[in-house]
Write a structure and sequence with these properties.
The longest helix is centred in the N-terminal third of the chain and has 14 residues, at 2-15. The protein has one helix spanning 2-15; strands at residues 25-30, 36-44, 46-53, 60-61, 69-74, 80-85, 92-97, 103-105, 112-118, 124-131, 134-141, 148-149, 157-162, 168-173, 180-185, 192-193, 201-206, 212-217, 224-229, 235-237, 244-250, 256-265, 268-277, 283-287. The chain has a four-stranded antiparallel beta sheet, with no helix packed on it. It is globular, with a radius of gyration of 18 Å. The protein has one domain (2-287): 6 Propeller (Neuraminidase). The chain is mainly β and 288 residues long.
Length: 288
């Protein structure tokens, strides 16, 4: 638990923008065709959403609000993205049309809504909502209507990810005392716990064929990027490095993982975006 608390402390510090001389780059997300990457950064002062090509070049600033705008997600429609912002005083989920530049508040609630993902067909969005000090998974239509609570317990459930066929939501939960990966059907049935143990296993993303889950595992001294075969339950480490890590975003072609590499500079955490090539196992800094 100490490790996960340290990770949350680092995230809170990054949220407050404490490292202005060493810019942070968070939450890399592939577009559906793998040609573009969304992320958010404080490189221009406030946290805003940015876009780059698949090589981390040609960076474009997408949002430019004076508040916090981050935790972006792609819709299957390449021209529509979403993000979380506290521009109304609390965190809501917004959509942004890259063509028209129209912004729409989807949730417009008094609660905290953060990390979210679009369904494979683009009709729904799964998201986390913190209410009464507990975070649960919710689903809504892509216009913000028909909000449905999917999980409901005293634990914290967050970071939802859709199965490729759109029938399950994968998420991480603290209900067993450590953070583990679970899945549940859209009607709340067939709930299953996929990882266990005294060490945290943090959900990243799912392969296009739905068989493999990419995660950050704390089974060793330092967190490593791992792959979980859901059929066998076997977890295999893909990295063996000493740096702290978070996220594990597999590319649509299944060849590259984007992740956040956390560096310490002047005793301050700095988030950078790295990529792991699964063919060669080479690692390099993508965006800095």
């Amino acid at each position: 638990m100490k490790k996960i608390l340290l990770l949350f402390f680092i995230l809170v510090n990054a949220l407050n923008g404490i490292s202005q001389d060493n810019y942070d780059y968070h939450d890399p997300r592939w577009s559906a065709d793998g040609s573009l990457i969304l992320f958010y950064s404080n490189r221009d002062g406030n946290f805003n959403v940015y876009l780059s090509n698949a090589r981390g070049k040609d960076i474009q600033q997408i949002t430019s609000d004076s508040t916090y705008e981050g935790m972006p997600a792609w819709s299957p429609n390449k021209h529509l993205i979403s993000f979380a912002s506290n521009k109304n005083g609390n965190f809501d989920i917004y959509t942004f049309n890259l063509k028209t530049e129209e912004t729409i508040n989807l949730t417009n609630s008094e609660e905290f809504e953060g990390t979210h993902r679009w369904s494979p067909d683009g009709s729904k969005i799964a998201f986390e909502r913190k209410k009464n000090k507990t975070t649960d998974i919710y689903i809504m239509n892509n216009d913000g209507s028909n909000v449905m609570r999917l999980t409901d317990n005293t634990a914290n459930d967050f970071s939802p990810v859709w199965s490729p066929d759109g029938t399950y939501i994968y998420y991480q939960s603290s209900e067993s005392g450590t953070y583990q990966i679970h899945k549940i059907k859209l009607d709340g049935s067939n709930k299953a716990k996929l990882t266990s143990g005294d060490s945290h296993n943090l959900l990243g993303s799912i392969s296009k064929n739905g068989k493999d889950i990419f995660l950050i595992s704390y089974q060793t001294e330092k967190p490593q990027i791992c792959i979980l075969n859901e059929e066998t339950g076997n977890i295999t480490s893909l990295t063996n490095t000493v740096q702290n890590k978070i996220r594990a975003e597999i590319s649509p072609n299944g060849k590259t993982i984007l992740y956040n590499h956390i560096e310490m500079k002047d005793d301050k955490p700095v988030f950078k975006i790295y990529q792991l090539n699964l063919d060669s196992t080479s690692i390099n800094k993508l965006i800095e």
